[in-house]
Specification:
InterPro entries: Big_10, LD-transpeptidase, LD_TPept_cat_dom, Transpep_catalytic_dom. Keywords: Acyltransferase, Cell shape, Cell wall biogenesis/degradation, Peptidoglycan synthesis, Transferase. This is L,D-transpeptidase family protein. This protein is mostly beta strands. It folds into 3 domains: 95 residues, Immunoglobulin-like (Sandwich); 103 residues, Immunoglobulin-like (Sandwich); 142 residues, L,D-transpeptidase catalytic domain-like (Beta Barrel), CATH 2.40.440. It has a 5-stranded antiparallel β-sheet, with no helix packed on it.
């Protein structure tokens, strides 16, 4: 997870602001500029010396009798505080929150009668008793390329009371635009899914402007977070459980048809799920044990398998199964996984990307939308209902 540690740079006062040299100085949060027949008074809120300013408080600068030429905000840590200058150049206000515990200096330049005066205000943002941080962003592995179905999954270090306030500062910007939406999975996890698959071979920028956001219950966001996500080839696998075969394509071109043996269907847990799955992770080797059973129980097993690619949270993998090669392509005899030959397993393992799409049909058990990353099981309109912004 990449924390956005940029220094607090000067924030331009708006499209109409220009850089001018200071002539004189102001003390405290208010300065008066004498210019012939008119005076310019500049008021900065919060006033200098203020401590414990709420991180989501709005910084305001107002000029009377003159116009603001430039406003900058310098912070001791965290991200820069940006702002907007009104069209009449009489007022300026901040447009984002402050980093908790940071010290800030606001410098405002006002002009009247051709004279320029600089006024400053120095204050400190509140250090709250509790803060909210993003503890994990998925995907976030350095150098990783992911599949076109890949969601963005955020996990927080504490429950989020004001989900709307937090969701509002989450930004996803792909090189090739596509509609997408967030859905909350409980109070500590939120997932972004697109309406259609990502376009392959592009980068997606994720940014959370979380620092200083009021997350409810006296909790404020601790720091901003940013990630760059690389979308790789469009690798889509379609399989028919009844026909015992799956076809792997890359960017629309068929790579290989692989015979498999799926779940025997004797019980629900031994039935391979139909539906749209995503490849979640892989391991070589992986030790598989029967869910809910202990040694000595009927149906208990423990098996070490090679070249295992997971596609659900209910224990389903594509993996090497040399013991069932004779059934692959003709019968379903597994405990629910897709058993393939050692050579096909090694090949599939080698090309598999997290977020690749695996569409299976032909069984009596449909995968649940929240089983692993099977988020594509929900129609997009239904998916959006789980967001906090409506």
């Amino acid at each position: 997870m990449a924390i956005n540690g940029r220094p607090a740079l000067a924030a331009a006062g708006g499209a109409g602001a220009v850089a001018l040299l200071a002539a004189g100085c102001g003390i405290g949060g208010t300065g008066v500029l004498s210019a012939g027949e008119s005076d310019a008074t500049v008021t900065i809120t919060p006033a200098t010396g203020t401590r414990g300013v709420a991180p989501d408080a709005v910084i305001k600068v107002k000029a009377s009798g003159g116009k603001l030429a430039k406003v900058t905000v310098q912070g001791s840590k965290g991200s820069a505080v940006t702002g907007e200058l009104a069209g009449d150049k009489k007022t300026w206000h901040s447009t984002r929150t402050m980093t908790p515990g940071a010290s800030y200096t606001v410098t405002a330049q006002a002009k009247s009668g051709g004279k320029l005066r600089t006024v400053t205000s120095a204050f400190t943002a509140l250090t709250p008793a509790r803060t909210l941080s993003i503890s994990d962003v998925t995907p976030n592995l350095r150098g990783e390329e992911v599949g076109v179905g890949m969601p963005i999954i955020l996990r927080f270090d504490r429950p989020v009371a004001d989900k709307a306030a937090v969701e509002k500062v989450l930004h996803v910007t792909p090189d090739k635009p596509v509609e997408g939406a967030w859905r909350w999975i409980g109070s500590q996890e939120v997932v972004y899914r697109t309406k259609t698959y990502w376009q392959p071979h592009q980068t997606v920028q994720f940014r959370a402007d979380l620092a200083g956001v009021n997350a409810g219950g006296g909790v404020y966001g601790a720091a901003d977070v940013a990630e760059t996500i690389s979308i790789g080839a469009a690798q889509v696998t379609t399989g028919d459980i009844g026909a015992h075969r799956m076809t792997v394509t890359r960017d629309g071109r068929r790579l290989r048809t692989v015979p498999f043996s799926a779940g025997n269907g004797e019980t629900r847990e031994f039935t391979t799920t139909s539906g749209v799955h995503l490849l979640m992770d892989k391991g070589n080797p992986v030790t598989m044990t029967s869910p809910g059973r202990r040694p000595g129980d009927a149906g208990y097993y423990q098996q070490v398998v090679n070249y295992a690619v997971r596609f659900s949270d209910s224990g389903e993998y594509v993996h090497s199964a040399p013991w069932s090669v004779g059934s692959q392509g003709s019968a379903n005899v597994s405990h629910g996984c897709l058993n393939v030959s050692p050579s096909d397993a090694a090949w599939f393992y080698g090309i598999a990307q997290r977020g690749d799409v695996l569409k299976l049909t032909g069984s009596t058990r449909e995968v649940e939308w929240d089983n692993g990353w099977s988020f594509w099981q929900l129609p997009f309109a239904k998916w959006k209902e789980g967001g906090a912004l409506g």
